[in-house]
Amino acid sequence: MKFQGSHILSVSQFDRDAIARILDVSAQMAPYASRLKRCHVLDGAILNNLFFEPSTRTRVSFGTAFNLLGGFVRETVGEENSSLSKGESLYDTAQVISGYSDVIAMRHPKMHSVSEFAEGSSVPVINGGDGANEHPTQALLDLFTIQSEMLRFGKSLDKLNIVLMGDLKHGRTVHSLSKLLSLYNNIKVTMVSPKALQMPDGVISTLVDAGHEVVVTDQIAGNLACDVIYQTRIQQERFASKDEADLYRGHFSLNKQIYQQYCKDHTVIMHPLPRDSRPEANELDTDLNELANLAIFRQAQNGVLVRMALFALTLGVDNKLTDYEKPVTWFTNKN
User: Fold this and answer.
1) pTM for this one?
2) 136-297: CATH homologous superfamily?
3) Within 13 A of 250's CA, how many CA atoms are on the CB side?
4) From 20-24, 298-302, 329-333, the region with the lowest mean pLDDT
């Protein structure tokens, strides 16, 4: 895959070689993210962050990633704060904003909207999530996290045994991750969810057609003895009402007792965050916070590395990083 100048819109763009390159460059970003050194390879470049749907981690990590490479960040948050609220088309917005930018990261509540926007952009556009469709950068950081966590146990992405649990119908993160996992060998995917929130048939078919074992169930008991549990929240914003979402909230909570009863000693817990900690939901109990295999915060930090890598690759500076290093001159306890 040619990265330089390309949009990053869907995980369907990637083969295993492209993914390996992204994960390799992501690992190279660790010294900069941990403040062991600085890199100003994108000094003077401008990222426009266009987030027309609520976001904390994705929006901030995109900006942080660009800053860590020396670039400047401009942000528009909320459709009501843009000319879209005045009837401007995505194409027209893209034509204008790309003229102000070197790269754009975008999130929008409408499926396929980021691809529509990219058609009008003269600079690379990176999809930060388009409705219930895809979240390619989250899937890449999830894959990077799984690879990193499995290395501790002498395992790899091939022959992975993973459980996807929660709202699998609306959770774009699990849709994108499943598509990436289909590229690997001998994967077992157990999908645990209420029957009404099961994984879309098209996603299941992608895994099955690639020769992987898929188990679909609405039962936790007997189905969590795996390498990775990937928990997702009930996507309230995708339901017609809060009352409808409440029908499913809290049915698939994971706590220390359930972990010890059903999981393996090495089972890693992941979640794209935010986790819903309200009593009626409590997807991942706080009694798991001291568990060494709880990877959710390492997972979030890995988002910065992967997004740094995507900026470096799309702007063609991935082989110039060490030429633009500087020492860190302030106190930091990150390293």
Assistant:
1) 0.93
2) Aspartate/ornithine carbamoyltransferase (3.40.50.1370)
3) 8
4) 329-333
